[in-house]
């Protein structure tokens, strides 16, 4: 737990939340400033700032919960779809420094955009540039 983290305070019960799901390792609650009816945040109960800070078991618990909750949330609010995403780091729009998965129900004609819209314009990359990026990512993964 982090003393200055609002999500850790919610887990501790110091700040109220509209909890919709809870296990030993994961908590899901309605977003206090929702983008849509039913907008839910799924968080690990233990503090982790970035996705890469999660160990394999906790990542499995977190993303497993998000996967199982998404259709349930959609059904509950009569949504036609959902955007499911993580803002990982300040440059990506992460406002609370605690990993959280957004499940945002979507409705036909709601005026929202696809998840592709979050990145702005698409870079114009040649095949050689794409090959170089693939090599860089693969090298970073192999360590």
From TrEMBL:
<feature type="short sequence motif" description="Histidine triad motif">
    <location>
        <begin position="98"/>
        <end position="102"/>
    </location>
</feature>
<dbReference type="GO" id="GO:0009117">
    <property type="term" value="P:nucleotide metabolic process"/>
</dbReference>
<dbReference type="InterPro" id="IPR036265">
    <property type="entry name" value="HIT-like_sf"/>
</dbReference>
<dbReference type="InterPro" id="IPR039384">
    <property type="entry name" value="HINT"/>
</dbReference>
<feature type="domain" description="HIT">
    <location>
        <begin position="6"/>
        <end position="113"/>
    </location>
</feature>
<protein>
    <submittedName>
        <fullName>HIT family protein</fullName>
    </submittedName>
</protein>
<dbReference type="Pfam" id="PF01230">
    <property type="entry name" value="HIT"/>
</dbReference>
<feature type="active site" description="Tele-AMP-histidine intermediate">
    <location>
        <position position="100"/>
    </location>
</feature>
<dbReference type="InterPro" id="IPR019808">
    <property type="entry name" value="Histidine_triad_CS"/>
</dbReference>
<dbReference type="InterPro" id="IPR011146">
    <property type="entry name" value="HIT-like"/>
</dbReference>
<dbReference type="GO" id="GO:0003824">
    <property type="term" value="F:catalytic activity"/>
</dbReference>
<dbReference type="InterPro" id="IPR001310">
    <property type="entry name" value="Histidine_triad_HIT"/>
</dbReference>
